[in-house]
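Side project, low priority. Logging it here so it doesn't get lost.
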Amino acid sequence: MLNSNKLKLTLVDDDAQMSEMLKDFFSGRFPSSIISSYPTGELALQGMFESPDLIVLDYHLDSSDPTAMNGLQVLKKIKDQFPDVPVIFLSGQEKAEIAANTMKYGAYDYVVKNESAFHRLEILTNNILGHAHLKKNLGTQKFFNRFLGILVIALIIGMIIMRFTR
C-alpha cells in the first residue's frame, strides 16, 4: 500500500446487489482502490494471483448454489495461500459461535449485515491500512537503524586503524 487511499481489495459475495453496494462503498471511501469482485469462493481463489491488501468475504457463499464452498471453507484456502492478508467476514448471521469460528480460522473480524455494517467496514479498513502503514514505517526504521549501526562500527574501526598506524 502506498498511502491510506490506495487499496487492493477483493470482494467475495454471491449476492449481486450486495456486491455492487460494497463496490460503490469502497470506491467512494477509497477512490484510488483496485477492486476485484467475485460471486463465488472458487472464482475468487482462481482469480487471486497476487496478494490483495484486504478481502471482504461473505459467510453464506453457498446459499444460491449448495455445491459451492461456503465462506469458512474459502477462508481456510485463502489463509493457506495468503496467510497475512486480513479477511473481514460479512454475514447476515448474528450467531456468536459462527463469528468465533471465523476468527478461529484467521478472520480479521466479523461484520453482521445490518444498518451499521458499512460504518464498521470503514473503521476496520482504516485500521488495517493504519497497521500496514505502521509495518512499512517499522521496516524503514529497522533499515536505518542497521545502516546507522554499520556506520558507527565503520567509524570505530577507522578510528582504531588511524590510532595504530600513527
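Brief comment: Residues 1-5 have pLDDT under 50 and may be disordered.
Revisit when time allows.
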